[in-house]
Amino acid sequence: xxxxxxxxxxxxxxxxxxxxxxxxxxxxxxxxxxxxxxxxxxxxxxxxxxxxxxxxxxxxxxxxxxxxxxxxxxxxxxxxxxxxxxxxxxxxxxxxxxxxxxxxxxxxxxxxxxxxxxxx
Length: 120
Fold this sequence. Notes:
Blueprint: H1 3-16, H2 20-26, E1 31-34, E2 38-39, H3 44-55, E3 70-71, H4 72-82, E4 91-94, H5 109-115
Parallel strand pairs: 1-4
Antiparallel strand pairs: 2-3
Helix pairs in contact: 1-2
């Protein structure tokens, strides 16, 4: 592992200890990720920002929170891009044959309209 990757691995170790895929990619090791299983995701910092807005807001109700529908593979690529982690040779797309349903999409239009907020 090169110096830059060792520094990244040390810097983000505590953040990604439970996120083994990101941590494995930081160490420049190969990872398989489903490219046909799609979900809506939430970044914790965005969720916290949204919650702080809710404290003083008068809009009540239930809201679906999450990003646009993305595959596991695409989500990992985005997170790694945000962290400047190279994935070209180490992130391998694979097809899922067991997880059902393949797609779980959330309708976040109400949240976007009421709060003008979008999860990435």
